[in-house]
Amino acid sequence: MPAEHSDALVFFGASGDLAHKQIFPALQSMIRQGHLTVPIIGVAKSGWNLEQLKERARDSVQNHGGLDADAFAKLSGLLQYIDGDYRDEATYHRLRRVLGDAQRPLHYLAIPPSMFATVAGRLANSGCANNARVVVEKPFGRDLASAESLNRTLHQFFPETAIYRIDHFLGKEPVQNLVYFRFANTFLEPIWNRNYVANVQITLAEKFGVNTRGRLYEELGAIRDVVQNHMLQVLVLLAMDAPVRRDAETMRDEKVRLFKAIRPLTPSDIVRGQYRGYRTTAGVAPDSQVETFVALRLHINTWRWGGVPFFIRAGKQLPVTATDVMVEFRRPPQIVFDDIAAGRSNYVRFRLSPDVFISIGSRVKTPGEEMVGESTSLISHRHPAREMMPYERLLGDAMRGDPSLFAREDSVEEAWRVVNPVLARATPLFEYEPNTWGPSEANRIIAGGVWQNPQEEPES
Prior knowledge:
By secondary structure, this protein is of the alpha/beta class. It has 12 helices and 15 strands.
C-alpha cells in the first residue's frame, strides 16, 4: 500500500545558510515540476516577518540556480512564516494553528543536532507530531554512543518509519548512477569479487579549505564530516550484493548487511593530516589536532570481498575538487607479451563529480612490429542539461514517504561502529602543504601500491 503524501512542509532553520544555499532552490524546482503544492511553513528566530522571508528566498534562488518567475510566484504564495524560539512552547502552538487542516506534515530540521530533541519534544507536546514525518540533517551524533542516544531520543516522539535521516550525497545523480550501473549491467558481476579485484580506491578531494567554517570544522574533522557518512555510503553501494526485491527496506537491509561486515578501524589503518595554515583560520584553535585530511584502509569480511583492501582518502586544500572511485583489477596471471609495468592493467573508474564519467581501462597493442601495448580507456561522459538537485530529490521522496535514500537507524550506528575506534584522535597528525595530495605518510596506508589521483579531466 503506497504511503500517504505529506500535506504540509515545515522547515526549521528557515533563515539559515543551508536554507539559502539548498532548500529554497530545491523548493522552487519542485514547484516548477509540479511536485509541490502544499503549504510551506518556515520557522526561525530572526525577528523577521513573512515579507523578509520571501526576500531571502528570492535572493537564494537568484544566487543558486536562477529565478523562475512563475515558479517563484507560486512558491511565494505557498510560503508562511513563524518567528519564534525553538525552546518556547508558544512557537509550536502557533505552528499548529498555521497548519490548519493539515494532518500529515513533514518537519524538516535544518538546525544543529543539539536542538533535535528539544524540537521533537515540542512538536509532540503541541500535537504537531501526530501522523507526521521528521527529516533530520547529518551529523547523526558525534560517535557511536551519541548516535545511539540521539536515536533513542527521536524514538520517544516518532517511530522509526517516520524518521528520515538525510545525507544529500545519496541524492546526487552520479551516486544513483553508480548503483544503477552495477545492477543494470551483467558484465560486471562475474568479475566483481576478490578473485579479480585487486583493490578499490575512493577519493573525495576538495581544492578549497574550511573558509568560514573554522569553528564548525573544529567540532568535526574529515572523519566525521565526510568519511563516516558520504564515503562509507559510496563504499556500501560499490560492495553490497543486489537486493532480492526492489522495495526500500530490502535495499536498506542489504546496505546494513554490508556495513556489519566492515572491520572496525585500528590506528594502523589510518593516517591523519592537517594543511599548513589551517590553525590561522578564524575559529580554529592555535594548537588544533583536527584532521583536514585522512587516508584509511578498510576490509570487508564477506565471501565476495575477503582480502580486498578498500582505500579511502578525503581532504581539503588538495590539487583538485573531485570525487572519484577506482576499482583496479588483478594483472593477468602470466606475461604473454610485454610486462605490465607499475600502474593499472584493467580497471573501472567512476567519476562522481564534478561531471559524471565512467571509464573502463584496458590495454591495446601499439602500432608496429613489436607485440607491446599501451593503456587506453573507454569513457562514457555525461553532463546533463538539467540534473535533479539532491535536496529536490530527497525532500520529494520524504514527502511521498519513500525512505530508499535515507539512512536507517541500524546503518547509522553500524557506520559509527566502523570509525569509532579512531575518533579519540590518538593517531599522529601530519602537516601537509596546500595544493598537494596530503602528507607523504599516507603512502603507508597503500603499502606496495599507488594512489590514483583524480585529474581535472579523466584520462582519455
